[in-house]
Amino acid sequence: MAERPVIDICAVHGDREVWEAYLTGFALAAPDYLRRFSAPLARRAGVEEGDYLRRLAADPLAAVHHLIDAGTGFDIADETYIERLRAAGIGHQVLHGFPWRGRGGVDANRSIAALAAKAPDLLTAWTGVSLRAPAQAAREMERAAAEWNMRGVSVSPFWEGVCASDRSLDPIYRTASRLGLPVWIHAGQNFNNTLPLDISDVRHIDRVAAAFPDLRIVIGHGGWPWMADSVAILQRHANVCLEFSSHRPRFMARAGSGWEGVLLQAGGALRGRVMFGSAFWVSRLDAAALAAEVADLPLPDGVADEWLHGNAARLLAGAGRPL
């Protein structure tokens, strides 16, 4: 474990309406996610997985509504969630927002910001914006930072069919750079089978980093399976780092995992550039258990602590302040 409290740079949580908005985004754009992660979703909702899968095959949106309406697991009180994080030894967690809305029309970004405001020492909220309306997204970022204290931005190209390097997105990146907001960009593997995989090719981030050298960029999920490219991008651009949420640390040291280059360079070119993220909802493990697996990786002295705390602490300390 870290010598200091763990910082989880990538998590999703909220009330029932936030979860409905999140899962609605998958139902509309990438329903295969709802199938591949059927076990944790059915477990959280307390429904029979086979029945859920049959509903999903017939109507993804109706299946989401079934999960939400049935599942008390989507209604964890804010205070309970905060207490659990503290008890588990999580020192800080970044909650990622998104632009989708459920049946009630609730703004998920605002709800997540309200949760973070209840424990600002423990939680930070980042705004999730749509790539299909960049000018509107830039205005939302301005408002979210000024009014709701949201200290970063999250974007997912696979969700909307717009690659990260599309020049139409310049208003988003310019605004984030001016406000000093880090931008988390989903990269690598995704399960939107209606789009080519390379919509999330990590090389798009290389172009963004070159065009906006003052923008702090986080490669979401590490960019796997293009890890050699991710390492090269971090070597090329001082304003880019990566986090490895949705990947089990215990498997990263295995031959053929794809993470060999990151481990090889962990104490050298990538020192200070790698952060822990959990995206724990896809796993049977919570953030603390996932973080504990980092201790077993073959890392140079002090690097595990940097991955679990120090590197993210520096990023978060600079959020809201331009480079």
Structure in words:
With 323 residues, this protein is an alpha/beta fold. The protein folds into 2 domains: 6-14 and 81-318, TIM Barrel, CATH 3.20.20.140; 17-73, no CATH class. It is built from 16 helices and 8 strands. Strands 1-2-3-4-5-6-7-8 form an 8-stranded parallel sheet. Helix 11 links the parallel strand 5 and strand 6. Helix 1 runs antiparallel to helix 7 (108-117). The longest helix has 16 residues, at 303-318. The radius of gyration is 18 Å and the shape is globular. The two termini are 30 Å apart.
Number of helices: 16
Secondary structure: helix percent: 40-55%
Beta-strand proportion: 5-15%
- Structurally, the number of domains stands at 2
Order of helices and strands: EHHHHHHEHEHEHHEHEHEHHEHH
Low-confidence stretches: none
At the first level of CATH, the class of the largest domain is Alpha Beta
Strand order, sheet with most strands:
1-2-3-4-5-6-7-8
The value of Rg in angstroms is 18 Å
Question: What profile does the largest beta sheet have?
Answer: 8 strands, parallel
Distance between the termini: 30 Å
Mean pLDDT: 96
Structural classification:
alpha/beta
Number of strands: 8
Shape summary: globular
For CATH, the homologous superfamily of the largest domain is named as Metal-dependent hydrolases
CATH architecture annotation name of the largest domain: Alpha-Beta Barrel
Here the CATH topology of the largest domain equals TIM Barrel
